[in-house]
Amino acid sequence: MTNRANAAIYYATDGYKPEDKGINGRRVAGASFLRGFLRHAEVEEFVFLTKTLGEINEIKRFHEKTKFRKPLRVAGLLNPQEIAPVEVLYYPAANIASEAWRRARFGAGAWALCGLTHTTSTPAIMQGLFDLRMAPVMAWDAVICTSRAVQASVATQIDLVDGYIRQRFGTAPPARPMLPVIPLGVHCQDFARNGAARASLRAQLGAAETDVVFATIARLNPHEKFDPLPIFIAMQAAVVNLPAGVKMHVVMCGQFRQPYSRDVFEKGAARLMPDVGFLLLDGAKAEDRQRTLSGGDVFLFMIDNIQETFGLAPLEGMAAGLPVLASDWDGLKDTVTADCGLRVTSRLLGPHHMANESARLQGGIDSFPQYSAAVSAMTELDMGDMTAKIVALASHPDLRARLGAGALARAKTTYDWAAVIPQMQDLWAEQAARKAASAKVAPIPAYALPIAPSPSLLFASYPSEVARLSEERFMALDRSGQIGLQDMLALRNYTALNHIFAPPNRIAAVYDAVQAGEETVQAIAAATKTSAMVVERLVMWLLKYDFIRRIT
User: Fold this and answer.
1) Residue 163: pLDDT above 90?
2) Which residue from 219, 227, 297 is spatially nearest to 253, judged by alpha carbons?
3) Domain that holds residue 297
4) HEC assignment per residue over 174-187
């Protein structure tokens, strides 16, 4: 494929390293995508955009570990134009507004932007979608929606923003970015079931071969992921309708953020489903995750929370050949089809409800966990439907076998990265083609970006006057007996902030040039082989600390 079907990958540790920053769906998906991209992308080279040397080294180490070899090139965040000839920048979040502004000084047609939805219900993301409509985002840009449900959600908010634009300004809103639906993916071979792991889990449970284990892998958070108590109620209700000799167990593998959450799960299970086995495992341990998938008979994912948008974990269950029992909710409507699982009816109150919850969140009265917990409290998973489907799956091994085989087939053909990455490349090619067919967009001067103007422009009213160094001459002062340049820099200690306005050796070179008799910015620039703009910055510092003076 050509560069047109490639994208430079915006890399930040927070988006791709769950082992460093903490396991959550966004980081797990990011790490999985990166492996999938390096393994399956049909590209001439891998291009990354990043901002720190540490992240550059991370990329290089990751690239070295992969068996799929293509050249690697890294561009710096301050020089994003260096991603060329690649024409698309992939950004692992929905809010591409910041990248649109960064691009603006090169022209909005310099490259296309491609974002990706994860959680869309937090205040930051909702504000980000508003900002997206105010930023120089173009029709050739895209925000990948991982499910039809989240696509509808994002489109709904954009509709509200565009309605505001029409009412407030009496004009049509700008062109929207593309909102294609492309799912997240998994590496199916990573989740193959293991006989020893299965035996280990079932021995720990005391589960006979006729027992049925419902397995969940998720963040175990009752107010930001799923409320377990309705599950426990339905499980206990199902017990009386099971065939003789069949016992059910629930295994939940994940992590707790606080003791409160653990109490909800442990005490809830003990009180509400005393006749069902229950086990909590540590989701941070790969061994426990494998035991959960290998020892389970049904993958259980009963989400009732707006924090969820796609649901990556059920794909892992499907890749392990497990039938899925899930809520009919968000991305699960796409992933859990009739050939691979059963979905439980969900209900949410109408739009005239819960405006107060939104106001409390927006006003800072409630935190996001409080907000999402309140919405979850008013979200129903049909108890009769859930109970009946638990009974059906627990009572019929043939149904579990048929749906499990369908789940594995669907995971391999639809959700393995080998199938997903080509969809992304097709999108990038379409974005590049749309960009090429559109009219040129003039760049915005780097010093005049509306959201981040140069301090020299924004605060021009602060000083007595604006320096005109290119029109002046300078001389070095006799500093005999006074502190030297390097000592002054050490005394000021800019490095305490891990940032200095210029390398000390470059400051010294400009000072040396003035001491050698170079009097103008232009002459100093020539002598030091440094741009005149950089020389002006360093001359200003030397003036500030009385190493040089103007010649009057």
Assistant:
1) yes
2) 219
3) 188-415
4) CCCCECCECCCCEC
